[in-house]
Design a protein that fits this description.
Elements lengths: L5 H12 L4 E6 L6 H9 L4 E5 L5 H15 L16 H4 L12 H14 L2 E6 L1 H7 L3 H10 L7 E7 L2 H8 L12 E4 L5 H5 L7 H11 L3 H4 L8 H8 L10 H9 L3 H12 L5 H8 L3 H13 L3 E4 L11 E4 L2 H9 L4 H6 L2 H8 L4 H20 L7 E11 L4 E11 L4 E8 L7 H14 L4 E8 L5 H10 L2 E4 H4 L5
Parallel strand pairs: 1-4, 1-5, 2-3, 3-4, 10-11, 11-12
Antiparallel strand pairs: 6-7, 8-9, 9-10
Helix pairs in contact: 5-7, 10-17, 10-20, 13-14, 14-15, 15-16
């Protein structure tokens, strides 16, 4: 069952219907569902789907030749048997048809001939692998896009999981392909609402928990059954030695980075509450400059995020957080549970080690959900969003630290939305409104403020009455999952 990505599919299909040359760049972190999206888009359309491999140039050419001949009845291949001695090292085990183009230029020419006759999609999945194997492929594609492909009906899709490569070597100014794309799609994890669609019978609270656990990553969501409880899903798919997700962060770091142990140490430090650069560096035992590079790479992968007060211009108040929800869940719960998992005692300790701590863990998750609600689903938002984030600083009245969960600045004037998010079992009362207003006074700066209160468990009657009188928005978890769960 295909879920979500409606806007991406709509845009891709609109491009397809143009009938002209189109070049779409699709990229995003591993496991986020890029290939699934492309496959859904290509369903029922004539498509050459080529999955590039971490192999030699010759092996990739042979694999591309196979992909072309599987799709095109008359590809115009110059026949060469895979057992040809001159090609033996490069094609053994590849070129199952026994027909291999002499060069990538010949292969592209064959695609160009076919695309002149009919609408044709050509997908290169994991393009960075091909670019590493065949160094001149980007320049070759540039030449064909500027000339041979120009008058064809080709729809070229370049897809990749290496965020840095795709942003610098494909989309970057110095790339030969710069300016050739007609659209780009950075595929992000599902938000809380699309994540909930995987579990239609779950309560709103359990849907939110699944978002907080999986981070909206489709491959992770596929591991969980909507017919099982949260407890059953966690014990089977994470807290078990042979579960696919039990060692997922470690495996992903090994795939993406050269020094996974050091990156693991950095993430562990952040998970333990070290959020400033100096604190992280000291905990890991490295110079701050080197630590900043590790953090930069983790931010490129979307695992770590950086935040400063939304009204701040400097970096002194910057802190780092684990942005990937699954990584945050894993580093919060799995390390301290490993002994129980290894010894087979995790079921007995599940309630005390995991279940009782989930509400505290979900506080930060709920804040992200509330931000997404404001940005994407609030049809009554009173400002045109400029920046969105948190604010923290000194409270001059109490001489203590104050923090506001959500601040949305207006892109048009000196107004803002101020929000407070409470993920707890009791209804929010008037005290929270008074505290939010006090913190807003401490923040200062804005001439017009609109107040939002978000609550997992609703609001007291007194607060509802006051909110109606003062035009304050009260939004429950159930409201965020409209239509009601």
């Amino acid at each position: 069952m295909f879920i979500g990505r409606e806007q991406e599919l709509k845009k891709l299909n609109r491009m397809y219907e143009s009938g002209k040359l189109e070049t779409a760049i699709i990229y995003g972190r591993r496991r986020v569902g890029k290939t699934t999206l492309i496959s859904e888009f290509c369903r029922g359309k004539k498509t050459i789907f080529f999955a590039a491999q971490e192999n030699s140039s010759g092996q990739n050419l042979a694999a591309l030749s196979d992909a072309i001949t599987e799709t095109l009845s008359d590809p115009g291949i110059s026949a060469r048997n895979a057992a040809d001695p001159d090609m033996e090292d490069e094609t053994t085990g590849y070129g199952m048809t026994g027909l291999v183009y002499r060069s990538f230029a010949d292969a592209l020419s064959g695609i160009a001939r076919a695309a002149k006759r009919e609408r044709l999609i050509w997908v290169i999945d994991e393009y960075p692998y091909l670019a590493q194997a065949e160094r001149g492929i980007s320049s070759l594609l540039q030449n064909f896009l500027d000339h041979q492909f120009k008058e064809t009906q080709l729809f070229l899709i370049l897809c990749g999981s290496s965020m840095s490569f795709m942003e610098r070597q494909v989309l970057g100014y110095q790339s030969p392909l710069y300016g050739r794309r007609t659209a780009q799609f950075k595929i992000l994890p599902f938000d809380y609402l699309d994540t909930g669609k995987w579990f239609p019978e779950y309560s709103c609270e359990d849907k939110a928990l699944m978002y907080g656990i999986t981070g909206g990553i489709p491959l992770y969501l596929e591991q969980f059954s909507p017919d099982q409880t949260i407890r059953e899903n966690l014990l089977e798919n994470i807290f078990q030695r042979n579960a696919m997700l039990y060692e997922e962060p470690s495996n992903l770091l090994k795939q993406e980075l050269r020094e996974p142990a050091m990156y693991n140490a950095v993430i562990t430090a952040i998970a333990s509450g070290k959020t400033k650069l100096s604190e992280i560096a000291t905990t890991v035992g490295m110079e701050t400059g080197l630590c900043a590079k590790y953090l930069s790479n983790l931010m490129m992968l979307g695992i770590v995020g950086r935040e400063m007060p939304v009204t701040s211009q400097g970096g002194k108040k910057t802190y780092y957080r684990i942005e990937d929800q699954f990584f945050r869940f894993w580093y919060t719960f799995v390390p301290r549970s490993m002994s129980a998992v290894q010894s087979g005692r995790i079921e007995k300790s599940y309630e005390s080690v995991i279940e009782k701590r989930l509400p505290d863990y979900m506080g930060t998750v709920f804040e992200q959900m509330c931000r997404d609600y404001i940005l994407y689903y609030d049809t009554e938002l009173p400002v045109t969003p400029g920046n969105i984030g948190q604010w923290w600083g000194g409270n001059p009245r109490t001489h203590s630290q104050a923090q506001i969960d959500i601040v949305v600045t207006s892109a048009e004037d000196d107004s803002c939305v101020i929000g407070s998010c409470k993920y707890r079992n009791s209804p929010v009362d008037e005290k929270e409104l008074a505290l939010m207003k006090e913190y807003a006074d401490a923040m200062g700066h804005f001439s017009r403020r609109y107040y939002y209160l978000f609550s997992k468990s609703g609001f007291t009657d007194a607060l509802c009455a006051r909110a109606a009188a003062e035009d304050i928005r009260l939004i429950s978890l159930k409201d965020m999952y409209e239509p009601p769960c």
